[in-house]
Amino acid sequence: MSRDTVAVVAAQLREFKTTHRPAPVGRFTAPDFVWDMRTFEGWPDEDEYRGGDGYMTFFARWTEPYDEWDFDVEDLVDASDDRVVAIVRQRGRLRGADSWVELRFGTVCTLAEGLIQRMQVFTTPEEAFEAVGLRE
Fold first, then answer.
1. Residue 60, beta-bridge partner list
2. 24, 78, 87, 104: which could form a disulfide with 74 (CB 3.0–4.6 Å)?
3. CA distance 14 to 100
4. What is the DSSP string of 35-56?
């Protein structure tokens, strides 16, 4: 019996918010997990990061410009076909600066056998919804 897709994504994101580390493979993510940046406009590095180690490489590059960084999940939407759209708002304080910057983006999470197999990041929530045939 597979777990509810939205509940799996919510649990993964809650744990990541607390630890800033991906959960062990098999808990929420598949062994062949992929973090996909191909649809995020302007990302200068690799298109895909594989597994927990790959994700941590991405995360280090993503947060490197900040002294402080955090995120909140605004919404999780069941997009059927084992996909969930996560709308995320992140904020960070750039190194040496007093002001904070914010970014709101969308991620399409694809699950297989109750585990997150791929998280594809889109520049805007609208693009993520469009990718799964929904509107925000």
1. none
2. 87
3. 22
4. EE-TTSTT--S-SEEEHHHHHH
Q: What structural domains does the chain harbor? A: 5-131 (3.10.450.50)
Kindly give the parts of the chain with pLDDT less than 70.
1-3, 136
Question: What pLDDT sits at residue 40?
Answer: 96
Q: Any idea what DSSP says for residue 21?
A: S
CA 23 to chain centre: 13
- What's the pLDDT score for residue 22? 76
pTM: 0.91
Q: DSSP states of 59-125 as a string? A: HHHHHTTEEEEEEEEEEEEE-STTEEEEEEEEEEEETT-S-EEEEEEEEEEEEETTEEEEEEEESSH
Q: Which residues contact 81 (CB under 8 A, 6 or more apart)?
A: 132
